[in-house]
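Let's sit down with a protein and look at its sequence and fold side by side. Go ahead whenever you are ready, and we will take it from there.
>
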Amino acid sequence: MRNPMIFAKGATIFLLLFLFGVGMQVRAQNQTPANIAPVVGAWTDPATGLTWTKADNGSDVNWNQANAYCSNLRLGGFSDWRLPTIDELQGIYDPSIDVPGVHLDGTPVMRHYKGNLRISGRQWSSSQENANESWQFDYFHEKRYSFRVSDSRLDRALCVRR
């Protein structure tokens, strides 16, 4: 005759494993920005679902260097970082948010963007005006600019992923 205690333990273990498996399937189906753990060093925009690095690269880079920086970035276990489009960059602009900064000449300025990000210059986009120029967004002047891809003075890389 079977020992009822051993059978009960076996049934309990089976039930727990079954429920764990069902829970894992439900969790996999609900992978939306609202229920995924945040990426350390990044911010996810709830309006778009895009995840942004918490800060730009912090130094002058030309467009090719900015692309390489984002393409080679490994952050939060992800390797699919990229330069954002100009529309994506403009999408984090918010005139109702004041972020204190310093202009080239040392005077204080206010920039306007969401996410409590650390932005230190103009941000390159992946959107090109032509073969020699790419669009940037400047959160101080609050508009788009087209710059030569070889320029690097105050030009930065803020990376994004979906």
Remarks:
- The beta strands are 42-44, 51-53, 99-102, 108-111, 122-130, 133-138, 143-148, 155-156, 160-161.
